[in-house]
Design a protein that fits this description.
By secondary structure, this protein is mainly alpha-helical. 64% of the residues lie in helices and 7% in strands.
Length: 152
């Protein structure tokens, strides 16, 4: 294959379109969450992921699992957790069965903020998708997202 190979060109164009769609959506949601709730997309995402933990088997996430879920490095996730902990939205505690493990829970204040922010996030996502579907290169990707048939 050469750099001008049509398959590579199509692949690169597809990647650029996906990256553009992601950037547009994230920027739109970021503006809405910041303006209405003082949250970044990453902060919202972290609160959302941690709010889904439970007390059952495997219900609490280790920091690496949290980092993977919010698509950040472990060090960036730890800094983000610290910022939200300083705001009273999260709390850390030692794992009762492994004293080396530290878990993070969303506080009542964090759950309240998340509940208030969730409709803003959802509306901003819908708005961003409605705008993106008007762009011919992005329309097929928007339809995939809307179909819910995206592999987890």
């Amino acid at each position: 294959m050469t750099a001008t190979d049509p398959a590579l060109t199509a692949l690169a164009q597809g990647w650029c379109a996906l990256s553009l769609l992601h950037g547009r959506i994230e920027a739109h949601i970021e503006r809405a969450l910041q303006a209405r709730h003082g949250l970044s997309v990453r902060e919202y995402s972290l609160l959302d992921v941690l709010s889904r933990q439970h007390d059952g088997e495997g219900g609490h996430l280790q920091m690496k699992q949290v980092a993977d879920a919010v698509v950040l490095s472990q060090s960036a996730t730890t800094r983000l957790v610290t910022r939200l902990e300083d705001r009273g939205l999260l709390e850390r505690y030692l794992c009762p069965t492994d004293r080396r493990g530290i878990y993070t829970n969303v506080t009542e204040t964090g759950l309240k903020l998340l509940a208030e922010a969730r409709p803003t996030n959802d509306a901003a996502l819908r708005e961003a998708l409605n705008e993106a579907v008007k762009v011919p290169e992005l329309a097929p990707l928007v339809r995939v997202v809307e179909s819910g048939r995206v592999a987890a």
